[in-house]
Amino acid sequence: MGAKSFLINSLPFAAMVMVECLDVGLTTLSKAAMSKGMSRFVFVVYSNALATLILLPCVIFHRAKRPPVTFSLLCKFFLLSLVGITLMQNCVFAGVSYSSPTLASAMGQLIPAFTFLLAVIFRMEKLDWRCSRNWIKIMGTLLSISGALIITLYKGPAEALFLVTADLCVSISTTFQAAVLKECPSEMVMVFFFCFFGTIQTSIVSLIAERNPSAWKLRPDIELISIIYSAVVGGAVTFGVVAWCIHKKGPFFVAMFKPVGIAAAAFLGVSFLGDTLSCWMYCRSNYNCCRLLWSDLGTIQRERTW
């Protein structure tokens, strides 16, 4: 019983480590596809549309377990997609197209800081100024933001602005998902509508922003591979696993795993995209800024129940 309980309790931890590594693969593939000339707007539309089709059978065949979908819930799904897919994905892929997956992972260390601030604002996290644990979180948040500012000065504000906006959208979406899952406990239903409304919204954005009709033609090379990977791994799998972990452990637990992707991003960036080792240096510096937040993860798991 002890070993079984340990494995069950470790499952969310292992799942989030896997998600972060897969997410780095997504940004690396997308960067490779966009370097070949693929439109980032078209990429977002096709990947979310394919993810919606993949998730559709799950919603249909689990109709008995599906909670009632009210108009109010649909509006929440729509807003969730607007922040978590339309704004976030367009910003992150714009940032990656101008910079690198390594820089995106480095700037992603703002997500734990933003999520902590949102948790305090919405009273999901209580601050006790006499508790050293809360001071550790505050110091980690300040250091994470300081590290992001240093990177912004080093690389320039153009790339960083897109990535900071994407990080804020991820934090808002993660916090909002925790609230939505209390009303709709089925993760797959939420993820399906998440991708469905995201497809509609990004299609409208793409039709306005992408005026070249030939951009919608897919070539059977890295473009097609990246879209399939993004839909299956980045959409259906990642969104589903993250929603499940948010439901089980809460949004702050999910946000704490962002530093995991730094090493993978640096390795893939140097190996396949020709990034310089200086990227690894400032990624490592930003990782150290987040170590104080990471040091509190065990306490959060023991003490918080979302």
UniProtKB/TrEMBL annotation:
The keyword Transmembrane helix applies. One of its GO terms (molecular function) is transmembrane transporter activity. Keywords: Membrane, Transmembrane, Transmembrane helix. The chain crosses the membrane at residues 37-61, 73-96, 102-122, 134-154, 188-209, 224-246, 253-274. Its main location: membrane. Residues 26-152, 160-279 form the EamA domain. InterPro entries: EamA_dom, EmrE-like, WAT1-related. GO terms for cellular component: membrane. It is found in: Membrane. It is a multi-pass membrane protein. PANTHER family: WAT1-RELATED PROTEIN. Belongs to the drug/metabolite transporter (DMT) superfamily. Plant drug/metabolite exporter (P-DME) (TC 2.A.7.4) family. This is WAT1-related protein. It comes from Salix koriyanagi.
